[in-house]
Amino acid sequence: MHTAITPAQSSRAQTDAYLQFQLEENTSALLLMAHIQEVFTLRSTAITAMPNLPEHVLGLLNRRSHISWLLDLSWLLGFRSLSHNSRQHTVILIEVNNALLGLAVQSVKGVLRTAADQIQSPPTTADNAALTAYLRGYVSPKSGSPLLVLDAGALTRMPVLQDS
Predict the structure, then answer these.
(1) Do residues 60 and 69 touch, judged by C-beta distance below 8 A?
(2) What's phi and psi for 51, nearest 5 deg?
(3) d(CA 116, CA 53)
(4) Which of 16, 79, 142, 152 is spaced 20 to 30 A from 116 at the CA atom?
(5) What is the residue-level pLDDT of the chain in tens, covering all 164 positions?
(6) CB 9: neighbour CB atoms within 10 A?
């Protein structure tokens, strides 16, 4: 039996799911859902601060008996820092090649599906070198600001995390 694929099914089959989240008020970003382990709210008291690390490293978190670093993703990427006086943080836990990493973000917006050919290459002359190191590209939605597409693998390979 041969089943025909409708155009809607065909375009859906060629898209990938991305988690959309806010870095700051006017800046949203995407991470491939294949790397997302969990999204949760974490009390600030559950973060173990570590001395002598860059300010974007909030500390260590223990989630389901796994220890991972927690980063202020906005600050790492060169945007305004999250409030470190906040009582809780929205955390995206990612995993790439068995490396876990917690990313504190402003808020999570939901899941967005987009085709790989809709991701445009990042500009070669970017003003923000911190962002460029972790940027796969961007997606321009029909309305609103472009959405940054981040490279989860590059985030988990950060030098400061490899040396710690």
Answers:
(1) yes
(2) -75, 160
(3) 35
(4) 79
(5) 444 444 544 445 589 999 999 999 889 999 999 999 999 999 999 999 999 989 899 999 999 889 999 999 999 999 988 876 678 999 999 999 999 999 999 999 999 999 999 999 886 655 677 788 899 999 998 888 899 999 999 999 987 666 54
(6) 11
Q: How far apart are CA 3 and CA 5, in angstroms?
A: 6
CA distance 139 to 130: 19
Q: Look at the pTM and tell me if it is higher than 0.70.
A: yes
Q: Got the DSSP string for 123-142?
A: PSS-S-HHHHTTEEEEE--S
Question: 8 is written with which tokens?
Answer: 């809607």
d(CA 132, CA 122): 8
Beta-sheet strands, E only, within the chain? 15-24, 27-32, 36-43, 57-63, 66-72, 88-96, 99-105, 107-115, 135-139, 147-150
Q: Dihedral sign, CA of 17, 38, 96, 123?
A: positive
Task: Order the strands of the 107-115 sheet from edge to edge.
Answer: 107-115, 15-24, 27-32, 147-150, 135-139
